[in-house]
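Homework help board

Subject: predicted structure for assignment chain

Our instructor gave us this sequence and asked us to write out the predicted structure in token form, then describe one feature. I got the tokens but I'm not sure how to describe them. Can anyone check?
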Amino acid sequence: MKKLILLPLLVLALAIFAACQPTEGDPEPPAEDPSEVAEGVSNDDAPEAPGGEVAPPERDLGGMVINIANWYQDECTETVEPTNAAERARWDDRRAMEERYNFRVRYVRYGSWDDVRNDVRDQILAQNRDFHVWIVEPTWFASHHGQRLFAPIPMHNFEDDYGIEWNHSILELTMRDGQPHGFASGIEMAGGVYFNMRLLEEAGVPSDLPFTLQRQDNWTWDTFTDMARPLSRDLTGDGIIDTWAITAFHQEVLAHALASNGAAYVVINPETGRFENATNTDAFREALTWVVQLYDENLTFIEDEGDRWDLFIPMFNDSQGAIRVAANYVAGNIFPELMDQWGFVAFPRGPRMDRHYMWVSQNFNVIPHFFDEDEVDDIMFAMRKWIRPLPDDDPDDWILEAEAVHRDLRSVEETMVNFTRNPELHVMPAHEMMPALGNVINENFAWRVWRGNDPSVIIDEAQQVWDTFIERVNNLGE
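My token output:
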């Protein structure tokens, strides 16, 4: 039955794939006139030579067709249908690059998410040269990296002036023998603190205090805690808290606390590529201690047995909680629900950090190991041309869209703009790459962050389980 279901998808993918390939018997494309550049495209890639003529390209890739295997799109310059002027400019530029440097790039939908996950290893072991780049999830990368399935990519590919926002923490995580084996580009705000301005004001706290503290570079664990203390309130005098300071998912609070203090669940040894335990450190202990303190002081809501696990969502949206720690994308869900004025700031920084770091997660691009050094260099040359920003690209074109789902523009102009313009604040955590992670982290750490729990005991009791799990994950790649 699965084969019958996948057959139409495979036929469709092959049809689109064929549309992006040169067909036997087709006439050769006309020789490029290097003086012609697509409308709206910069001549920066066709500099003038002495005498006013356009200089020849610095590289000819000989008609190389670079296929990028993925699970979500088929796309190439021959079949794309731009929907607006910006997209047309982007694809005109890509056509010009392909003609000038004599290459083609094709995004090929290999199959479903399951198909890519299940087949990428076998396809590389079979040395299938149809696909030059595979898009993989972080956990897939880690399990195959140990088998040395991916080619090293020299660092010079990420040090030029194309204006591409490379995720350098991913380059570091994929490092082995001094060279990265995967890459990703693009930066966006990951997550932070949403706050109900009315509830702050009713508790005697200035309604925009988080904005002020963030702007003054004084938004720390201590100032956050001081602000939160008056926000858990018993409004009826019956001894039951009616509005909580913090309503959030335990995992998200702990994850942000660890990132904000430079702590981690695991690190990766850059020489061996193996995971190593990082929980028994002062930075980790400090983060866990602070999160437990928030529960000890009745600042963070704990659901009763039988409550829905995501009760914190309607509680914040219904003004029963003043603060919610969550990802950036949830603003679109909060906006139509929460009628009160609200804002969004970065998560406060811990005592070991001087900036507001946060964890992010992205898919990786990898090149199979059987492509030699020259082929890798050609592939990366084409990829850099393909994804580079245009000279007229506006790096802030996302701002209007973000402002549409935020009630206070400072959430965008002071918080989100800062993070998108400072990629070094975004860190890809190594534990995101651990296959079969399941609930191991949550059961041993996040779900134990409750009132009265001793952080040292939580950490100590987790060591044997955690070390055993890390060793098992390391052995998956051998």
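Reply (TA_rk): Your tokens look well-formed. For the description, you could write something like this. The chain is about 40% helix and 10% strand. That's the kind of observation they're looking for.
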